[in-house]
Design a protein that fits this description.
Layout (H helix, E strand, L loop, with lengths): L1 E7 L9 H11 L4 E8 L16 E8 L18 H12 L6 H9 L7 H4 L2 H14 L5 H19 L8 E4 L4 H13 L3 E5 L3 H11 L6 H20 L2 E4 L2 H10 L6 E3 L23 E5 L8 H14 L4 E5 L6 H14 L4 E3 L5 H4 L5 E4 L8 H8 L4 E4 L4 H6 L10 E4 L4 H12 L2 H18 L2 H27 L1
Parallel strand pairs: 1-2, 1-4, 2-3, 4-5, 5-6, 6-7, 8-9, 8-11, 9-10, 11-12, 12-13
Helix pairs in contact: 2-5, 7-9, 8-9, 11-12, 11-16, 14-17
C-alpha cells in the first residue's frame, strides 16, 4: 500500500518535532511504501534534506511557495467562472460556510489558467473580493484589503494547480495548506484522507500573527480567520483525525471537527537510544541547564535567555546550552545571540543541530520555553535520559510533567506560564538547588515515558490504522471483482 504523507514547513528540511515524527513513522513501518509531498517556503532548499531518506520512501515531491514570485499573469479576463464556481470562491473569501473541495479542485485543475495570478486578474474574482469587502470589511481601506487577500490566497491557488501523486492513502501532518491538498488528492482519486495534528495548526498561526510585525491592526484578524477556515476545511474532509492528547481533541471540536472522527495516538520515543545515559549524579560542580529546541520565534528563545540571565544572577557559574537548528530563521537567531551579548550573559552556548543522546548526559535540568507545542518529543527524550524538565504550560506539557487523571507517579518537573521569564527562572533555581528533588522528578519522568509514550506503542498504533485501511480496500476490491 502506498501512503502519501503531506508535510508543510517541516520534513525533510527541518530537524526535530514533526519532522522527527514523520521520519520515525516511515522507518518503523517498512512494510508500507511512502511518498512525501512537501510544501516548503524557499526553493533554495530543494534537495537539501536533513534526513537520510528511508528506502521505503520512494518519492519526494517538493513544492516551494516562493516560486509564486516568478508567476506571470496573462492579462485581464472576464466572465470566466460559472455561478457555482463563483459561490465556491465567495465561500472561501468570506470564510463562513463549508467549502466544496471538489468544486475548488475543478476551478484550478480543469480550467485553462496558466497562472494562479490569472484568477486575481479576472473581473469575476475582483467582483467577489469587492462584494465580500462591502459586506464585511468596508471599514478597512479597500486597496490594503485587496492586497491582503492576494497574499493570503495566492499560495493556496498555486498549490491547487500542482500535480498530486497517486496513492492509496493521503495523510497530512497539519491542518493547513498540506491538508487541503491532501483532501483534494483523496477526492480526485477516491481514497481515504487522514489528518494528524501535533499542535493545533490554526492556534499556532494565530499566536504567530498576533506577535507579528508584518500584519497590522485589523488585518491580523483577517489572517487569523483565514487559517481557521483552512483548518475547518481540513477537519470536514478528513475521514479520521488523530491527535496526541485529549486537550488537543477538545480544541479541534471547538474549531469544528466532528468528535466521532477524533482519536488519540500519543508520540513515542526510542528509549533505547538513551539507555547508555546514567541517572543524575550529585557532581558538586556548576549546574548545567539545556534546551533542545529549534531557534525560532514560536519556541520563544528570548524569554529563555532572560530566564537564564536571572538564574546566572544567583548561580554565576551555571552553564547554558541552547541545542538546536539556528539556520531555519537566521534573523531570529541573530536577535537571540545579540540579546545574549547585550545582557552580558556568560557561559551561554548555541550548539546548532546536535545528536541529542551525546549532549543530554551533560545536563542537570532541561527547559522548554515554547508559546505553542503539541506533545514535544524533546521532553520525552529528556525523560528517557533521566533528566527533569521545566516547561511552559502549552500543548501536552502539563500532562507530561504531572501525569493524567490515572497517573499517580507525581511531578517529573515543573510547568510555568508562557512568556514568564521570572517564573521560569524560579523553577530552574528550585530544581538546581535541590539534587534529591531533581533525581526524584527524573525518575518519575522515566517511568511515565516507559508506561505510556514508547516508540513501540506509537508505531503499532499507526500500523493498525494503515493495516485496517488496507484490509478494507482489499475487501472492496474482492467484492467489486465478484
Amino acid at each position: 500500500m502506498k501512503i502519501c504523507l503531506l508535510t508543510e514547513g517541516s520534513y525533510p528540511y527541518i530537524v526535530g518535532g514533526v519532522s522527527a515524527w514523520v521520519h520515525m513513522l516511515m522507518e518503523g513501518l517498512p512494510e508500507f511504501e511512502f511518498q512525501i509531498y512537501s510544501i516548503g517556503a524557499f526553493k533554495k532548499d530543494r534537495g537539501h534534506f536533513k534526513y537520510k531518506i528511508p528506502e521505503n520512501c520512494t518519492a519526494i515531491q517538493e513544492v516551494f511557495l516562493d516560486e509564486i514570485l516568478s508567476e506571470k499573469s496573462t492579462g485581464l479576463q472576464k466572465s470566466v467562472l460559472t455561478p457555482s464556481q463563483r459561490e465556491t470562491l465567495i465561500d472561501l473569501v468570506r470564510g463562513e460556510s463549508d467549502i466544496d473541495i471538489e468544486e475548488l479542485a475543478h476551478i484550478f485543475r480543469h480550467h485553462q489558467w496558466k497562472s494562479p495570478l490569472d484568477v486575481f486578474m479576472s473581473g469575476d474574482f475582483f467582483d467577489i473580493i469587492e462584494s465580500v469587502y462591502k459586506e464585511k470589511y468596508s471599514y478597512l481601506p479597500f486597496t490594503d484589503y485587496f492586497w491582503t487577500m492576494r497574499s493570503m490566497l495566492l499560495p493556496l491557488f498555486y498549490l491547487l494547480q500542482q500535480e498530486i501523486p497517486k496513492a492509496h492513502v493521503y495523510h497530512s501532518v497539519a491542518a493547513g495548506y498540506c491538508a487541503v491538498i491532501g483532501s483534494m488528492g483523496a477526492r480526485l482519486y477516491k481514497k481515504p484522507f487522514l489528518l494528524t495534528e501535533h499542535g493545533i495548526y490554526a492556534r499556532e498561526r494565530e499566536a504567530e500573527i498576533i506577535k507579528s510585525a508584518w500584519a497590522k491592526g485589523d488585518f491580523k484578524a483577517l489572517w487569523i480567520h483565514y487559517f481557521y477556515t483552512l483548518a475547518r476545511l481540513s477537519y470536514k474532509e478528513a475521514d479520521h483525525v488523530y491527535t496526541l492528547f485529549e486537550h488537543n481533541g477538545e480544541i479541534e471540536k471547538e474549531i469544528g471537527c466532528d468528535p466521532a472522527k477524533i482519536s488519540i495516538i500519543p508520540n513515542g520515543v526510542h528509549m533505547d537510544r538513551f539507555a547508555h545515559i546514567s541517572e543524575l549524579s550529585d557532581h558538586k560542580g556548576p549546574i548545567t541547564i539545556g534546551a533542545v529546541v529549534r531557534v525560532v520565534p514560536i519556541k520563544d528563545i528570548i524569554t529563555l535567555i532572560h530566564a537564564f540571565y536571572r538564574v546566572q544572577q544567583e548561580m554565576p557559574d551555571a552553564e547554558f546550552y541552547i541545542m538546536g537548528n539556528t539556520e531555519e530563521d537566521p534573523e531570529y537567531a541573530h536577535l537571540c545571540r545579540h540579546t545574549v551579548e547585550v545582557m552580558g550573559l556568560r557561559n551561554c552556548h548555541f550548539t546548532g543541530t546536535i545528536r541529542v543522546p551525546d549532549y543530554l548526559p551533560k545536563m542537570d535540568i532541561l527547559v522548554l520555553s515554547s508559546i505553542s507545542e503539541g506533545q514535544p518529543l524533546c521532553v520525552l527524550e529528556g525523560f528517557s535520559a533521566h533528566r527533569p524538565y521545566v516547561t511552559t504550560d502549552v500543548g501536552c506539557c502539563r500532562e507530561l510533567i504531572y501525569g493524567d487523571s490515572g497517573d499517580h507517579l507525581g511531578p517529573a518537573g515543573s510547568v510555568v506560564p508562557p512568556l514568564d521569564d521570572r517564573a521560569l527562572s524560579h523553577e530552574i533555581l528550585r530544581l538546581a538547588r535541590d539534587y534529591p528533588l531533581r533525581k526524584k522528578m527524573a525518575a518519575v519522568g522515566y517511568e511515565r515515558t516507559k508506561k505510556g509514550y514508547t516508540y513501540e506503542y506509537f508505531i503499532n498504533s499507526y500500523r493498525e490504522v494503515y493495516s485496517s485501511l488496507e484490509r478494507k480496500m482489499k475487501k472492496w476490491q474482492e467484492s467489486a471483482s465478484n
